[in-house]
Predict the structure.
Amino acid sequence: MLMTQPLVRIEYAEREVVRYKQDVEGWKERYNEFARGRGLWEDLIAKANFLLDRLLSLFADITEIALKGDCRLAEELRARNLHVLLEWRDVTLQVLAEARRGELDYGQVAGLDVLRANNERAAEKLNLVREVHIDEGGRIFEMSGEQLIASGLAPEDVLRSLEDERLGRTRSLREIIAERVGNGI
């Protein structure tokens, strides 16, 4: 493998992720319901799955570069690849949300299960916390579509806590810590 080959592949991935984002935005502008653009949506899912495979395979090439002794180049390539992977994931979360609605209304969506698994793979590579979705009944779902069952998180408790937060009766831990750090405590 030539040392420049991963760079060319990262540049390709950068361009393709930009196109992927543009395609998703274009789909949203043209179609206001999933059923009308279902075939295009499934094409976007296939593209997303293909792109993730390319991005993840680059990490192996970057590791090989580091093992050959060019740690500086490897770190630069790794940072760029992580950035592109993060952009891919941001767009993919939009795709997953829309496809989930389409799946609920119209049934199985081709490639969606693979995309859910790929989203989890990307999150692991990025060391991110797993995303969840809370439905109107207070049930918590992972982005994979599986319901999250956790003790102490009954749907009515989740709804009550969301309402308390909305009404300002509670504050997030992040706000409390920011206030204490800001005050020097």
